[in-house]
Design a protein that fits this description.
It is built from two helices and seven strands. With 111 residues, it is mainly β. A hairpin with a 4-residue loop joins β4 and β5 (62-66). It is elongated and about 50 Å long.
Length: 111
């Protein structure tokens, strides 16, 4: 499997750096997992998600992955590309307990 952290950025972020985010995973809003499941059909895939981990299993494969950050399992988007045997999960990261976000939000000098 492959995991990728994703950020939503606009032109103001790219050219001006207005929102103060950086390219680290601390500033990402989503995690994308690409899981290869060759010779698998959609009906055989079972996905169990909570805010701390995911479990993906079929009759031939088993993956348990703990998340580095708290996630929102209800906002997850899943797509199965059957001809390639790839399951793609896009899982939102919950950021309301982030130290820097709270510091900027509560401090009038950053608003």
């Amino acid at each position: 499997f492959e995991s990728l952290y994703r950020q939503r950025v606009g032109t103001e972020d790219v050219f001006l750096g207005i929102n103060g985010s950086d390219p680290s995973s601390n500033c990402c809003q989503e995690i994308t997992y690409k899981i290869e499941l060759p010779n698998t059909v959609l009906k055989d895939i079972q996905i169990d998600l909570n805010d701390k981990q995911m479990v993906v299993q079929t009759k031939d494969y088993y993956l348990c992955q703990y998340f580095q950050y708290k996630t929102d399992p209800k906002g997850t988007k899943a797509k199965f590309i059957s001809d390639k045997g790839i399951l793609e999960l896009v899982i939102p990261i919950v950021r309301n307990d982030d130290f820097w976000w709270n510091m900027m939000k509560d401090n009038e000098h950053y608003v």
